Amino acid sequence: MRLRHKPWAVEFIDAHTDVVIPNPEAHKTKWSEVFGNDNPVHIEVGTGKGQFVIGMALQNPDINYIGIELFDSVLVCALEKTIEAEKPANLRLLKVNGAKLEEFFAKGDVSRVYLNFSDPWPKIRHAKRRLTHEGFLKLYENVLIDNGEIHFKTDNRGLFEYSLVSMNEYGMALKFVSLDLHVNMPEDNVMTEYEQKFSALGQPIYRLECQFKSNK
Ligand code: SAM
């Protein structure tokens, strides 16, 4: 998702360093200092306008959440919503590329990775850009706790099938798979912006939870 250029976005983001962490490298191995507690840290890579990560932070005050987004024009929407939600103490945002996670997090800093409606990159020559490509799985493994999990939702059947194969070939254990999440919607499901849009069109939502094995 790339929205119309917003010249004011950078200035607005820079004025809210209490929410959007300006130098995340400085907090590697020390995220507990940012949140003021030792609670687990869950990250969402490709957080978009932030509805999911804000909803999760409000629903689960004992978990710390970090929403990661590449573009200023999109992140600024997540920042505005975070301000509207009165800046939950357990939520921070990063304007960074998820491909650089290891610059900001050490092994064990992160307890769970969420990927929601990731860009599908349907052309084979762009497969390495998919957030469930083995290159990204390696990154997630390198920042997660042992036996850490990825929770993934999408409306895109092709990306879902690709991700199942990619995770299986990587040696991950599949813990949960749904081909139509909204048929038996879990009570605690927090919908993302894209999830709301596609489910309103009657499209099935695919979801999986998978886990890295520490002794592969
Ligand atoms: N997760 C949101 C949702 O479900 O409504 C947004 C989905 S949108 C299709 C994907 C988002 O991921 C876009 O905002 C895009 O900018 C972001 N994104 C894609 N690749 C990224 C990367 N490598 N690092 C950080 N964000 C990324």
Tell me what the structure shows.
The protein has one domain: Rossmann fold (3-Layer(aba) Sandwich), CATH 3.40.50. It has a seven-stranded mixed beta sheet with strand order 3-2-1-4-5-7-6, with helices on both faces. 38% of the residues are buried. Helices cover 32% and strands 21% of the residues. The chain is α/β, with parallel strands linked by helices. It binds S-adenosylmethionine. S-adenosylmethionine (SAM) binds next to β2 and α8.
The biggest beta sheet reads: 7 strands, mixed
**Number of self-contained structural domains:** 1
Strand order of the largest sheet: 3-2-1-4-5-7-6
Encode the helix/strand succession as letters: HHEHEHEHEHEHEHE
- The global form is globular
Please tell me how large the radius of gyration is.
17 Å
Q: Multimeric state of these chains?
A: single chain
- Outline the low-pLDDT stretches: none
The separation of the N and C termini measures 35 Å
How many helices in DSSP terms?
8
Mean pLDDT across residues: 96
CATH C-level? Alpha Beta
Question: What is the CATH architecture descriptor?
Answer: 3-Layer(aba) Sandwich
CATH superfamily: Vaccinia Virus protein VP39
What small ligands are held by the chains?
S-adenosylmethionine
Portion of residues within helices: 25-40%
Number of strands: 7
Estimate what percentage of residues fall within beta strands.
Answer: 15-25%
Structural class: alpha/beta
